[in-house]
Amino acid sequence: MLARTEEILSLARSKTPADRERLLLAVVDLCDVAESAQIMSAPAVQDLLNSIFMSLVVEAERDIRRRLAEKLANVDWAPAALINVLALDDIEIARPIIASSPLLDDQDLVRLLIEATIEHQIEVARRPGLAPPVVSAILQQGEPAVLTALAGNVQTALGPEDMALLVKAARRVAALRSPLVRRPELTDDLALQLYVWVGQALRQALTTRFRLDPVALEAALGQAVGEAHAGAPGADPTADAIVWEQDDEREEMERRLISKLVAAGQLRPGYLLRALREGKLSLFAGALATLGDFPPEMVRRALDGEQPEHLALACAAVNIDRSAFPTILELVRELNGGKPGGGSDGLRRALSAFGPFAPDLAAMAFRRTMTPKAG
Predict the structure, then answer these.
(1) Is the peptide bond before 214 cis (omega within 30 degrees of 0)?
(2) Contact call for residues 267 and 254 (beta carbons, < 8 A)
(3) How far apart are the first and last CA of the chain?
(4) Which of 110-114, 137-141, 214-218, 266-270 has the lowest mean pLDDT?
(5) Where on the phi/psi map is residue 24: left (φ > 0), alpha (ψ -120 to 50), or beta?
């Protein structure tokens, strides 16, 4: 082990780019050694880390930064400045640091909520054991996706005021309702408020868990109907109007999320697969339309049609890899009632959309194909 330490110190004295890369890789690999924490605590190594580590990380390749973040996510000896730099890196690099690093204090987490991308903020909200100042910052910002992540974080305790604010937000943010129903801190009074805005399955969960007064329920529903419909005749308080409102809220939340991802430079082709794996077909459609600069109705027609090659053209146009398309098509069909159709033969035809030609030609072909014929 002493020889390994001497090797690292020797590399640190070298100024060549190759040796500097080797130095960072050596430090990453050293984290696998059981005695690494003791070695890292040695004054000579600490001086090394504090004096040159930051410049090495800035110059390092993305994959090396990712490996470094994974190794350092749970240690308490790394330079705090380095941890903060990694926490602000691309989300794939930052995720383990935000989730676990003991070196991120409340002030660091609040700064991430203010300065970082929406995906970074969501990871902060998912971090176990958030302190009240961080919870308060999340609630003050009121970002729907981040609020939803907080509501689902059962490893963070929420106070009565926190729960009241989340239940109030659930009126406009449909995604909040399901995780809030399952929160251990939900009280009878808050459950009654939430009951008005959830669907039938969640209402059953609430009535099973709480002894809700039927008279109070009817009164709350009646009040909600009056407010929602403003005197519209024939409105059903438990059916179409609430469902439509929930759909509108979800679509607005997704539009805001996509806009923030675009502004932060974080809307990339890989996000499409993630949206599908989370069961968010409309988010997938909106993100695909935005990435390809396609009219949303074109993407919708491709999803609902009988020819999966249309969807394949759209995916090829935004640089989705050919190998990922079978998974995308399978997930879309699961979420969209089996459409686009075409079966396995359709998939084979669809794969021809991925080349050999440039993405801009695929985009042109998609627009031409999906434009309704005149007459």
Answers:
(1) no
(2) no
(3) 79
(4) 214-218
(5) alpha
How many Cβ atoms from other residues are within 10 Å of residue 62's Cβ?
11
pLDDT tens digits, 333-352: 988 888 998 887 888 888 88
HEC secondary structure over 287-341: HHHHHHCCCHHHHHHHHHCCCHHHHHHHHHHCCCCHHHHHHHHHHHHHHCCCCCC
Q: Which two tokens stand for residue 175?
A: 């995604």
**Does position 235 have pLDDT exceeding 50, yes or no?**
no
Sketch the domain layout of the chain as residue ranges.
1-15+49-100, 116-228, 270-370
Q: How much is the pTM?
A: 0.56
Half-sphere exposure of 60 (CA within 13 A, CB side): 29
pLDDT band with cut points at 50, 70 and 90 for residue 242: very low
Distance CA 19, CA 25 (A): 10
Reduced to 3 states (helix: H, G, I; strand: E, B; else coil), residue 143 is coil
Cα separation, 120 vs 251, in Å, equals: 21
Compute the average pLDDT of residues 182-198: 88
Q: In the numeric block, which tokens belong to residue 208?
A: 């099973």
Residue 309 vs residues 252, 315, 319, 329, 349: alpha-carbon distances, Å = 29, 10, 15, 10, 6
At 362, the amino acid letter reads A
Q: Are 187 and 264 in contact (CB under 8 A)?
A: no
Q: Residue 96 and residue 107: Cα distance in Å, rounded? A: 18
| 3-state DSSP assignment of residue 374 | coil
Residue 79 tokens read as 């330079």
Looking at residue 373, what DSSP letter applies? P
Side-chain-facing half-sphere of 193: CA atoms under 13 Å: 15
Element counts in the chain: helices (H) and strands (E)? 24, 0
**Would you place residue 27 in the very low, low, confident or very high pLDDT band (cuts 50, 70, 90)?**
low
What are the φ and ψ backbone dihedral angles of 95, each rounded to 5 degrees? -55, -50
In our burial notation (b when 16+ CB lie closer than 10 A, e otherwise), range 231-245 reads eeeeeebeeebbeee
